[in-house]
Structures are given as structure tokens and as C-alpha cells.
User: What shape does this take?
Amino acid sequence: MTIPGQRAVNFGGFLVCAALMGFALYAQYGLALDPCPLCVLQRVAVIALGLVFLAAAIHGPAGWGRYVYAGSAIVVAAAGASVAGRHTWLQSLPEDKVPACGPGLDYMLESFPLRKVVEMVFTGSGECAKISWQFLGLSMPAWVLAWVLLLGALAAWNNLRTRQ
Assistant: This one.
């Protein structure tokens, strides 16, 4: 069995990210599951990872460019994994340990400086601890965690492997 070329694998990674975002939008608008602030940051990470895959697919890097795309994907995937991991952890807390609900993201962006908004979002709130969707026993943030780790590893392997 031959392994697909680097451009094809990068384009496949982009399509997976697009499918993940398609499901996120379906969950929001079709299932009426409004995203919490941590969900929004996870979406940003999936979109950024998809853009890294797409750029690598279009560019088809050689030499040091392979390291740039692999490194970029690892950084974006690590950021996404940290947010999804935090979100999953918040969801695992007992009810009496869940932080109080905070203001919505729109309000925070209008009312606070960006640094304070980022700090408040990463702290999480009670709304982030609510599990409103599961598949095979895993919540949406747990699935995002698994996908960004898998896609980050795929991007690193694909862009660092030798050309065939």
C-alpha cells in the first residue's frame, strides 16, 4: 500500500477540520447548542489548524518550509488541546466545585480589555461545565481534544516525512 503524497494528506487534514467546523455549526444552529467561551476558542484552534493544513497543501513545502508547517501545526494543536483539556476538566468537576457562571463572551469583549477577556475565558465558568451533548460517552470538548491531538500528530508526521 502506498501512502498518499504530502499535499494530499495536508488537504485531507484540511477537510477533516472543515468537517469538524461543519458539525460545530450544525450543533449550534441545528441542535440549538450555543457555544460557551471555551467552545469558541476551540473553534478558533480547529480553524487555525485547518488553515495550516490548507496552506501546506497549496504550498507543498520542501526544505525548511516543512518544519515551519509542522511546527505551526504543533503549536496550534497544543493550544487547542490545552483549551479542550481545560474544558473537559471543568466538565469532570463535581457540581459543588464548578465555578460560578460568568458573563457571556460578547459582553466581556465589549466591557473589558482583551487581556482580561482572555484571562476570564481561560478560567472558565459554570456554563462551560455543562455537558449538553455526548457521543460514545465523550463530550464535545473531549472529542475536540482527541481530534486536535490526532491532527497535530498527523501534520507533524506528514510534513516532516521524507518525500517519495
The longest helix spans residues 64-92. Residues 31 and 107 are 24 Å apart (CA to CA). The mean pLDDT is 84.
